[in-house]
Amino acid sequence: MKNFSISMEKDKILVVDDDPEMLKALEMTLKDEGYSISTASDGNVAQTILQRENFALMITDMKMPGISGLELVRKVKSAKPEIGIIMITAFGSIDIAVDAMKEGALDFLEKPFSPEKLFETIEKAFDKIKNDKEENEDKPEELDSHKIIYNDSKMSELLKLVGRIAHSDVTVLITGESGTGKELIARYIHKLSKKKDGSFVAVNCAALPEGLLESELFGHEKGAFTGAISKKMGKFMLADRGTLLLDEISELHMSLQAKLLRVLQEGEIDMIGGKSPVPINVRVIATTNKDLKVCVKKGEFRQDLFFRLNVFPINIPPLRDRIKDIPALLNHFCKKYSPLKVGKNDFFSENAEDYLMKYQWPGNIRELENVVQRAVLINDKKLEPEDIFIDSWEDHADLDSGVKVGTSVEDMEKELILKTLVNVKGNKTEAAEILGISVRTLRNKLNHYESKN
After folding, report:
1. 389-395, long-range: CB within 8 Å, 24+ apart, which pairs?
2. E-strand spans in 301-451?
3. pTM here?
4. Among 23, 123, 156, 258, which residue's CB has the most CB atoms within a 10 Å radius?
5. What is the dihedral of CA 37, 40, 44, 45, to 10 degrees?
6. Which residues contact 142 (CB under 8 A, 6 or more apart)?
7. pLDDT in tens, 19-70
8. What domains can you pick out in the chain, each with its CATH number?
9. What is the largest CA-CA distance in the chain?
10. 3-state helix vs strand vs coil in the chain, percent to 5
11. What are the residues facing 314 on neighbouring strands?
């Protein structure tokens, strides 16, 4: 039996289960351990109890008559988001349990489970609740030098989702275009996880040939092959009790995919030349800019490995789909590459910022950073659109726009603005939103057009 602190013993737990015997067994087991317990026989009773009492944690069964466990999670997290939730699920219902975690559950227990496993899961849940509270009260906004800059609601929702699952050990597959910040998200998950005191180890699966990559991942014994003059610790061993990032996982050779699958299934590795498997305790996060489902169909990626990696998928939207992040990123990169600049308004004019927000950013945040770094090197004054140099702008332009060669940029812009205003019946706020500029900029441009007539 685990001995918990007095403050933890005082935390109240609501247990919800429609099986009277299971409910009574959980109640007696937890009371014997010192917890303050209330019980509910179904979701409706649970909601009634929650209206009149406060609880630190709720443990609920998945399948119940009336309101299901998943629906109860949604309702409770909506009404009282501060309550931690543990889901009890039957064998083979892992997908549903993962859905529950997406809705806000902290963890799940798969039946049958031992009292020790129950106590361990509760302890983890209380640690997560405590850490979240301390972070909200005391921790600064940025975690470390690898901070995530965002202002768009899409990224805000994504990071909330990440925060809900970071504490667990589920394997995460992060997808997204090149330059969207997949490694930053992986580091963010590690920083929020229970393995945050362990190492974060990253390996690029595309950077090394097959032979070297196997040794790099799993290590080798002295004399295992020609040139192995000493024992080498692989990345899995270096990341033990921490997190291993497998970057560009789609580039992993098929033979290594089979070995990686075994590691994920068995929790142990085979060093090259080793005599017996070595147990490891590693949280694996994989990233890719490819669609692994397509790779599976082409026979380039193992389907069973895909399912093992894709326990919790996270897709990072491209920068062009979250343009509200651009001003914040401009500010951040200006400070990074020109420390004397205190904000984006000291370096980029409003027109320049609007210009950058219209661009499609095929290289995403990495491309934006390069543009800012280049700008601060060549000019220390406020930049206008004509001062910004972007590689291959023409490659990403709409070549079928009907614009005649020889038309000036200003005339093209004027025509676009006036046509947009006609389409929205003169509504400047709506037109500005469609054009991706501020209402103030729109008014200034219209005044400029009138002054020239």
Report:
1. 390/359, 391/367, 393/359
2. 312-315
3. 0.57
4. 23
5. -80
6. none
7. 999 999 999 999 888 889 999 999 989 988 988 888 999 999 988 888 888 8
8. 6-136 (3.40.50.2300), 154-315 (3.40.50.300), 319-397 (1.10.8.60), 402-453 (1.10.10.60)
9. 86
10. 50, 15, 40
11. 174
Say whether 5 sits in a helix, a strand or coil: coil
DSSP 3-state assignment of 195?
A: coil
Tokens describing residue 123: 């302890």
Q: Which two tokens stand for residue 384?
A: 């206008």
Q: Is 357 left (phi over 0), alpha (psi -120 to 50) or beta?
A: alpha
| The token pair that represents 45 in the structure block | 């009773």
The answer for residues whose C-beta is within 8 angstroms of residue 281's C-beta and 6 or more apart is 240, 241, 267
Digit-coded pLDDT (tens) for 356-386:
888 889 889 999 988 888 877 776 677 777 7
Instruction: To the nearest 10°, report the CA torsion of 125, 191, 131, 111.
Output: 0
Q: b vs e for 209-229, b when ≥16 Cβ sit within 10 Å of the residue's Cβ?
A: eeeebbbbbbbbeeebeeeee
List C-alpha distances in Å: 390 to 356, 357, 372, 440: 10, 13, 10, 26
- Give the strand order in the sheet containing 57-61: 36-40, 12-16, 57-61, 84-89, 107-110
Tokens representing 190 are 């590690």
86-95 burial, b for 16+ CB within 10 Å, e for fewer?
Answer: bbbbeeebee
**Lowest-confidence region among 2-11, 180-189, 191-200:** 2-11
State the pairing for strand pair 278-279/268-269.
Answer: antiparallel
What token pair was written down for 250?
């789609």
Burial 152-175 (b: 16+ CB within 10 A, else e): beebeebbebbbbbbbbbbbbbbb
Joined together, the tokens standing for residue 62 give 């998945």
Q: Alpha helices of 139-239 — where are they, by DSSP H?
A: 153-165, 182-192, 210-218, 235-238
Dihedral of alpha carbons 253, 259, 264, 200, sign: negative
Beta-bridge partners for 172: 285, 312
